[in-house]
Amino acid sequence: MTPVNLKSLAEELNMSIATVSRALRDSHEVSEATKQRVRALAAARHYEPNAYASSLRRNISKTIGVVIPKVANHFFALAINGIEEAARQAGYHVLIYLTHDDYAREVSIVQHLKGGRVDGLLMSVASGTEDFAHIKSLREANIPIVFFDRVCAEVATAKVTTNDYESGYQATEHLIQAGCKHIAHLLISNNLSIGQFRLQGYLDALTAHGRPADPDLILHGVMDNQQNVGLIRELLQRRPDIDGVFASVERLAISTYHVCNELGRRIPEDIKVIGFSNLEAAALLDPPLSTITQPAYDIGREAAKILLRAVEKKKAVLPSQSVVLESTLFARQSTAG
Amino acid sequence: MTPVNLKSLAEELNMSIATVSRALRDSHEVSEATKQRVRALAAARHYEPNAYASSLRRNISKTIGVVIPKVANHFFALAINGIEEAARQAGYHVLIYLTHDDYAREVSIVQHLKGGRVDGLLMSVASGTEDFAHIKSLREANIPIVFFDRVCAEVATAKVTTNDYESGYQATEHLIQAGCKHIAHLLISNNLSIGQFRLQGYLDALTAHGRPADPDLILHGVMDNQQNVGLIRELLQRRPDIDGVFASVERLAISTYHVCNELGRRIPEDIKVIGFSNLEAAALLDPPLSTITQPAYDIGREAAKILLRAVEKKKAVLPSQSVVLESTLFARQSTAG
DNA sequence: TTTATTTACGTAAACGTTTGCAGCAAATCG
DNA sequence: CGATTTGCTGCAAACGTTTACGTAAATAAA
């Protein structure tokens, strides 16, 4: 029942704590013979070094934080998967925090993390975040940060995203080529650059094909899904000429399906639908949903790798690089000509 | 650029470190006047206590670990959501580890966690885990553990599950009432009690309705989905009399959909399908999938709450209670009469 | 007044680890 | 043979907090 730590091991071996510590860290300063003895006893006693003592002394936590809006979303779940993989390989631990897209909560989380609990931070900003002082203050605390997906333009650091503009362009073009004349764009209204890029891709694709961009066809959704269903219903009823819908986020595509079911609009005959989505079951929907799918796992993994490189080099502030991983358009029944 | 810690605050305020510490922890041993001064400066300097020093000294990490097979699965994602919520409310942090259903990885993770990095552990065991020595050894390290969903019968501690037996019974009965004569049961073959309960529910429901249980109709799936598709195809071809499928896990239901599409079997006309699933889009599948849906969020939240209560009371070993939260059967098109 | 009690603060020892420095043999070199 | 190097080990001081204990002053009780 006595605690097993360096002290107890040292006593049992009749050597100093320092030697035991060095032996376990495989220092060249200790003879092979003693290393063997130390390792043998450590194994026998199931010694595990105290992470906090080590962290305190070395000022290194071997932990990264992940701050995301939500986890019950296949994109973020996959991203975490990638992050965990990269972290594990590098011997790092992963702390997870959910903001639920709440600015106050995001600030509170980031604030707490400045206590040195993490060596670095991965973040996808909350949609409501407009002030970035809390993020900038991480720099004073020497905590590097890497954004992924929902990046923050105001903060200069490494960012990993997908090609949102091109994807928005492609999705729109895909609908045009499928024969759509009046294409609506559904997005979540906020100040996230990611939505702006997709919107711009949509607008430019329309222009490139000689279509006038109609502001009336751009629907700004809200946080509440039930409310979005109402908004979409109202739009489709007000504008019966709409024959194509490009949803900027998955749940708006799903809501569109619900509204179409409700209104008796057939997909794809009456309205074609495409949306950004990482839904596994997209191919099994009725009808199978055409998607632009982000490489979520790779985005998480790449972001983590970049962060970990910076952490290992003790680079608190990263060069303002931007890594772009390409999304893939899967054409399925919902946009069939 | 000088570090802001208790020492620097104390110097600036001309008082001892002890007083500053006590003031910040709102101790009754310090006057209101000095508390004010301390708090003011701490706020001005953006002081954040060093988590590791505190943890080392108090032997409390304010952190819980979550060890699960995967995160890219709506059930676990929702569970994490509930866990994070409970943890946040109690002021705890959440470390996450993925086993990918790999026994060796699970052992390695648990081993490392004995270093005191976490105050308690939430776990859903890997499907390949047969030996539980690594889990039992947590007891020596005074780390309480709570199982959720995939519990471990060999270890006496608190467990949070859903009513797997009753749900299996209900699902089977649902198919019987829908008119199915030959009901297959698909499960993942492993030693998890959870699958055994569902299977037993299936068997008992058949018996209760005077149907002989046919071992040939029980398909033991494997880890690889592609392989499962082959197995299911083989089963449905060998036994064309099968008119109902009860899938123990989501991906087997999905694979069944794929096979039925491929073989031209109509759902629900030729074969009715029901499965355990937390798929959000179940209602949008073609056809909408009848599901038994687990209260994933609540399971996670409840498990975390139980664990946190134990942690706060420094109860390293929890009473062997079992909390059962009920699943809900959603009857949809895939089992329509 | 003296003697308890309370209030408010400081001193210093932990917590377990890492690491600069020193010591002290034995080995090598000039 | 003395001087220097090399190889191994121990001493002790950190890292930033928390907290048992001590103490001085102020207040209350006698």
TrEMBL record, chains A, B:
Transmembrane segments: none annotated. Coiled coil: none annotated. Residues 4-58 form the HTH lacI-type domain. CDD domains: HTH_LacI (cd01392), PBP1_LacI_sugar_binding-like (cd06267). SMART domains: HTH_LACI. The keyword DNA-binding applies. InterPro entries: HTH_LacI (IPR000843), Lambda_DNA-bd_dom_sf (IPR010982), Peripla_BP/Lac1_sug-bd_dom (IPR001761), Peripla_BP_I (IPR028082). The keyword S-adenosyl-L-methionine does not apply. Keywords: DNA-binding, Transcription, Transcription regulation. One of its GO terms (molecular function) is DNA binding. This is LacI family DNA-binding transcriptional regulator. It comes from Hymenobacter segetis.
